Amino acid sequence: MNAERLAKARELLEAFPQKSSALIPILHLVEEEFGWIPEEEVAVVADLMGYTPAYVESVLSFYTLFHRQPTGKYLIQVCRGLSCQVRGADELSKFLYEELGVQRSGTTEDGMFTVEAVECIALCKDAPAVQINLEFYPDMTPEKMQAFLDKARQEVPSDA
Ligand code: FES
Q1: What is the Cα–Cα distance from 43 to 26, expressed in whole angstroms?
Q2: Of 79, 134, 148, 152, which residue is the least packed, with the fewest Cβ within 10 Å?
Q3: Segments making up each domain of the chain, as ranges
Q4: Residue 74 phi/psi, 5° resolution?
């Protein structure tokens, strides 16, 4: 973790009456910084909290919201909950897999996009819903998704 996040992690440790309560928020700090949880950071967190790396790993293995591999610059999470499924989530996922040439949980070769299927993201009334990084996108369609992808691609120089 960088110095700023390490300071935040120490603040979190102080803020919770039981240090175990700080573990998940601290892991979120790591995920925020790297976009995933590298093994070296597991050791940093374990050391900070006085746990073994194996214990931190066991917690990580329980929570699917933490990534153990690098993700793309844009992490596209398509809700696969019931409301979204009946309103087109499967078609949306299929569109993304074809457009980006990836499989489920796959990342494009250029490292731009990762596509995941996730459980309900609490936008059921505006299904199908998608989360991209920290932003929520209700009433998503393949057309809107295409517009997002086009815009994101324009942000990166073609020779990058
Ligand atoms: S089922 Fe998709 S947001 Fe709830």
Answers
A1: 13
A2: 134
A3: 3-62, 74-154
A4: -110, 115
Cα(146) to ligand 1 centroid in Å equals: 21
pLDDT tens, 58-86?
A: 999 888 789 988 999 999 999 999 999 99
Q: Give the three-class secondary structure for 114.
A: strand
Cα–Cα distance for residue pair 65/143, rounded to 1 Å: 27
**Distances from the Cα of 103 to the Cα of 66, 94, 109, 143, angstroms:** 19, 9, 12, 20
- Measured from the Cα of 89, ligand 1's closest atom is 2
Q: Which fold has domain 3-62?
A: Arc Repressor Mutant, subunit A (1.10.10)
Q: Which atom of ligand 1 is nearest to the CA of 79?
A: 2
Counting ligand 1 atoms within 8 A of each CB, the residue from 78, 79, 91, 131 with the most, and so the one to mutate, is: 79
Is the Cβ–Cβ distance between 27 and 66 less than 8 Å?
Answer: yes
Q: Is the CB of 124 under 6 A from ligand 1?
A: yes
pTM for this structure?
Answer: 0.78
